[in-house]
Amino acid sequence: MMQWLYRLADSARHRARRRSWSRTQASGRRGEDLAHRFLQRMGFQVVARNYRAQGRPGEIDIIAWDGDTLAFVEVKTLASSEYSAPDRAIDAGKQRSMFRTACAYQRRAGVEWGRIRFDTVNVLLTDPPGITLFRDAFHPLRKASP
After folding, report:
1. By the 8 A CB rule, do 134 and 120 touch?
2. Of 8, 17, 32, 85, which residue is least crowded by CB atoms under 10 Å?
3. Tens of pLDDT along 55-92?
4. The pTM is what?
5. How far is 121 from 134, CA to CA, in rounded Å?
């Protein structure tokens, strides 16, 4: 019953967003909504969405605790995987941006660097949506000063 209500709410929210947002923005936000719910079902405790460090460029889609590990999650959404997997769009520049933003959050939250992980979630907007979590999707070589 609850799944049906979630799908109905997602559909209504997506239609409303499509009226004022571009198709890409609306689809990306729908993917983030689906990923958020998926992570919660997997036992993650979501603490922030669309986090931006003050005065710095870059954004982290979802920040969540997975047990005693703080996961910084990038969500990538595509209509299909016909050409490639969504996470293939996470290049070195995006990884550096996530790393800098994660450093700012880590300092603010007072979390030890050894308890941090970078994950990705692929969302395919098929019927039903396909959602895949990749833990430890990438590893920064060292903790640098942002």
Report:
1. yes
2. 8
3. 878 899 999 999 999 999 999 888 776 666 767 777 88
4. 0.82
5. 6
Q: Which amino acid type is present at position 58?
A: G
What confidence score (pLDDT) does residue 3 get?
A: 64
Radius of gyration in angstroms for the set of CA atoms belonging to the chain, rounded to a whole number: 16
Beta bridge partners of 64: 46, 71
Rounded to 5 degrees, φ, ψ at 88 are -65, -15
Which of 91, 83, 80, 92 has the alpha carbon at shortest distance from 122?
80
Collapsed DSSP state (helix, strand, coil) of residue 71: strand
Q: Is the bond into 128 cis (omega within 30 degrees of 0)?
A: yes
Structure tokens at 22: 């571009």
Q: Which stretches of 38-125 are assigned E, i.e. beta strand?
A: 45-51, 60-66, 69-78, 116-124
User: Do 101 and 87 meet the contact criterion of CB atoms below 8 Å apart?
Assistant: no
Q: Rounded to a whole number, what is the distance in angstroms from the first to the last CA of the chain?
A: 46
- Element (H or E) spanning 51, and its range? strand 45-51
